[in-house]
Amino acid sequence: MLTGEPGIGKTTLAETLASEAASRGSTTLFGACFDGEYSPPFWLWTQVIRSALDTEHGENALSQLTKRQQFAISRIVPELEISDTEDETTAPHDERGRFELYDSVARFLVHLSSLAPAVIWLDDLHWADDSDLAFLEFASQQLATSPIMVLGTYRDTDVARSTPLARTLGLLTRMRGFDRIRLAGLAPSEMAELIRRAATVRLDAAESNRLVERAAGNPLFGREMARGIADSGLDPAAEHRLPEGITEAIGRRMAGLSDSQLKVLQTAAVFGPEFTVADIAASAEEDGPVEATELALEAARNSGLVEELASSPGTYRFTHALIQETLYDELTPTQLVRTHARIAKTLVAGPGKSASDRLSAIARHHREGVLLLDLDEAIEYSLLAGDHALATYSFSEAADHFEWAAESAEDKSDSPERAHVLERLAVATERGNARDPQHGWDTLCEAVRMYIRLGLNEDAVRLASFPAVIGGMTGVVELIEDALKVAIPGTIERGWLLARYVTSLGDAARPDEAEVAFAETIEIAAEHENERLRARALVHGAQVWYRANDPERCVTRGLEAIEIALRLNEALSVLRVIDFCTESLCATGRGRDALELIERCRDVRDETTDSFSHLNRARYIISLYRGDWNRIDSILADLPNSDRKSNLVNWHAALKGLRLGMPDTGLYEMLDPSISKYAFFDGYHIAINILATWLQVQSDRKLLELCDQIYYTDPVVTAEGKIRLRGLSVLRSLQHGTTPETEDITALRDSSSRVIPRTDVPLERILGAVSVAAGELTEAREHVKKAIEFCRDGELWPSLAWSLLDLIRLAVHSPETVGRDAAEAAASEALKLCDQLEMPVLATKIGEALERLPVEHSGHAGSNGSAAYPDGLSEREVEVLRLLSDGKSNQDIADQLFISRYTVVRHVSNIFQKSGASNRTEAASYAHQHNLV
Question: Which helix H or strand E contains 4, and what residues bound it?
């Protein structure tokens, strides 16, 4: 990316680079952004595609696409005139359709670059609209491995944090191969040389220095001021004659134009960055011959204000955007309205008024000149432009057109026409307003209810079933209930609406009502023999019971949904439920079943859905439960670069650090709800895991305060969420040394889940700790044994190691409840797991617990009942002591005895305790004193 202030030389440098690339055999493609009001949707990439088709390899690259892919591209390049013969046209609000368009354009560019390396020059990205930037984000990932260089320019002075480009730059910055070069301007000596060459009158040193100082390193400013002096022939020593800024400098260049010629240029400035002689002549304030317009533009060209496009004779553009801006700003509001109105009439009367790349301009000029035009006609063109923007997935622009049409209509009472406008506005707003999804949903609700008031019940049901994002929205249940009142019983349309009702009731923590809606949906699916509806109902039913903290029912419905979806090759249904099923299987101790499920679904792909939130998320969950850190690292490494990937990598690194005994002080900030952005979905899942793990590893005041913040501020209402927070609450109380709330303990005992939801901490472990705190040691032992059995069966290895530590600690606390032999066996198994899972912090805790085991409960004796070795040393401990006395390290001893290093640590700890030695030297002396070596 080349960035800098206006006039600093970004475009000149980019043009030079593109020319150099072309001279070396590369294909150079070009697209320029215009001020958003001037551009049709997807205009930047439409220009790139057109320039690609004009190259020697363009037709060849296009021919390598399928007919369907060519048709997708023709939606934004209509002159291709390709009919869709393979499949029905995708609905304009279908996310799959947007992916199809993006993927087709990206594949076209990839094919083109395979024939010759390509440079794609994108000029003035600060004016790019949402659709252009969305594809840039998509293409940057898809083209990363192709011989393509994307060269963008933008004004950094026009990019605030809230602008669309700022977000895109944030994503691109994290991508491999991204670079940003800020042009800082010319040095004084370089500027002096530029001014000397631009001026045709001789400047003395003092005057040259004044110009250099005023230009402040900006080449355009310096050149314009120097030319202003040269063109006017003024005395260069007369300082008051020098322009004060670039506007005055451009004004100098216009000084040689007549009033009529200046009016032609002002009309062109209102028309847009590019214009034809015919259009400007037809839009003139006074009728005159086309030749007069040609002469005016020729004079402007000679003054360096405009240039004629070599690829399109008769079409001009301004040589710099600042020139157009200067001309536009000099017009009064009245002049602007009149000029826009004249241009609107010209475009409507001219050829190609329905061409897709002119609709936006026609609508814009009608909007700006509406005071002098027919309002109904202006509204009609806004609707046409909105429909085109919607069809090319330029949702923000479509919403702007539809909203203007809806607000401008004189009659705002209910009518079918107004309802249809509101529907289009609802679709565009919902799809394009990612920063405020509630606004999009509210617009959709307004349209649905207007349909109901008008008695257009089929339209109401259809729109209420629109695949909008409803998670976290308010008013969802109420709207669907309104639509259900007018839906015809038993119809397939009612069935699809009921399926949405099921999931919305689940979100609202109303599972019993969801069951009633689910049963009716299944009945309609059976009546119509519609397997897709049945699969969708099962997906939503599984989600309901996941949120209701009933993993068994979630798994039952989810697995049936996946079976049907795999049979129908419906990837979306599989992906919507596989992560819930995986977590529920793990939560019920069926980790191996979860692995088998993921393996069965490994080839399922749906590129229109998020790359992490479904199949990869399921892989992440099972890897987390099993402690497969390398697998998690691989999953995260394969994600496309984005803010989400960056956040997930940081979260996982923090969690892994805790497991490895290397906590990061930055965790406090990561877990603070007032600072962190984890509050929804992926990050929250990992945040809860971090809290649960941290509470096991260590405890401090600040951590406990964070637990309180999450517990008391979390807005969850689902049963799954409540159990999650109750589990954390009990863990927090145990660490703080306070008595857990009775209702929390009761909820954990009654939970259908076997773990704290979204963690790998078994509830039996927590109940065991509660029993220890209450002095109920026998009950505690049973809870711990159940936790160990559950973890072994489910192959939840990190949790198994922690549960074994619980058993060892119970033996320390109550030798009568758990014998030393059982504790040592548990320690041996746990230390092996620590070695395999790289969990040294847990291994240290196990060693500390072993040191506290009472010696009198060792139980080591010879065959006649007397101790075989002094002080109750076991045969294995004597073997270790002998090697220790020889100066062997723990690793040497482990290798020689074919045991783990952590097992050696345990034996050495026992030797020190039984012999009374405090170090290895004293232990060796003890061995010699007792003739053990």
Answer: strand 2-4
Q: Count other Cβ atoms within 10 Å, centred on residue 332.
A: 8
Q: DSSP letter at 666? A: T
Residues in contact with 674: Cβ distance below 8 Å, sequence separation at least 6, in sequence order: 709
- In terms of C-beta density within 10 A (0-12 exposed, 13-18 middle, 19 or more buried), how is residue 529 classed? exposed
Strands 315-318 and 306-308: antiparallel
- The amino acid occupying position 874 is S
The span from the CA of 888 to the CA of 686, in Å, is 42
pLDDT at 120 over 90: yes
- Residue positions counted in the chain: 933
Residue type, 566: L
Q: Determine the 3-state secondary structure of 180 from DSSP.
A: coil
Instruction: Report pLDDT digits (tens) over 53-79.
Output: 999 899 999 999 988 889 888 888 888
- Written as six digits, the tokens of 258 are 């007549």
How many CA atoms lie less than 13 Å away from 783 in the CB half-sphere?
Answer: 22
Contact between 751 and 715 (Cβ < 8 Å): no
Output the furthest CA–CA distance in the chain (Å, rounded): 126
Q: Indicate the pTM of the whole model.
A: 0.73
Question: Rounded CA gap, 117 and 22, in Å?
Answer: 10
Residue 535 in contact with residue 561, Cβ under 8 Å? yes
Q: Could you give the CA distance from residue 358 to residue 721 in angstroms, rounded to a whole number? A: 52
- CA 64 from centre of chain: 31
Task: Give CA–CA dist 917/897, Å, rounded.
Answer: 22
277 CA to centre of own chain: 45
Burial of 286 (0-12, 13-18, 19+ CB in 10 A): exposed
Q: At what angle do helices 615-626 and 591-600 cross, to 10 degrees?
A: 150
Can you tell me whether residue 660 is helix, strand or coil? coil
Alpha helices (H) along 569-660: 571-587, 591-600, 615-626, 629-637, 643-659
Angstrom distance (rounded) from CA 703 to CA 71: 57
- 2-4 and 27-32 beta bridge pairing: unpaired
Per the CB < 8 A criterion, the answer to whether 280 and 297 are in contact is yes
Kindly indicate the confidence band of residue 625, based on its pLDDT and cuts at 50, 70 and 90: confident
Q: By CB neighbour count within 10 A (0-12 exposed, 13-18 middle, 19+ buried), where does 842 fall?
A: buried
How would you classify residue 887: left for phi > 0, otherwise alpha for psi between -120 and 50, otherwise beta?
A: left
Q: How many CB atoms lie within 10 A of CB 188?
A: 15
Helix axes 719-736, 763-773, angle to 10 degrees: 40
CB atoms within 10 A of CB 389: 30
Distance CA 667, CA 288 (A): 73
Do 37 and 364 touch, CB atoms closer than 8 A?
yes
The contacts of residue 334 (CB under 8 Å, 6+ apart) are none
E strand or H helix that includes residue 27: strand 27-32
In the chain, helix, strand, coil percent, each to 5?
65, 5, 30
**Structure confidence by residue, pLDDT tens digits, 260-279:** 889 999 999 999 888 889 88
Instruction: Extract the tokens encoding 57.
Output: 């390899």
Three-state SS at 29: strand
Q: What does the alpha-carbon distance between residue 307 and residue 279 come to, in Å, rounded to a whole number?
A: 16
Q: Are the CB atoms for 507 and 548 separated by under 8 Å?
A: no
CA-to-CA dists, residue 678 to 287, 580, 639, 681, 835, angstroms: 63, 19, 18, 7, 32
Give, for 120, the enclosing helix (H) or strand (E).
strand 118-123
CA distances for 480 relative to 449, 484, 486, 870, angstroms: 10, 6, 10, 79
Strands (E), 180-266: 181-182
Torsion of CA 254, 260, 261, 264, to 10 degrees: 110
Measured distance between the N- and C-terminal CA atoms of the chain, rounded to whole angstroms: 73
- Who wins on pLDDT, 672 or 505? 505
Displacement of CA 712 from its chain's centroid (Å): 28
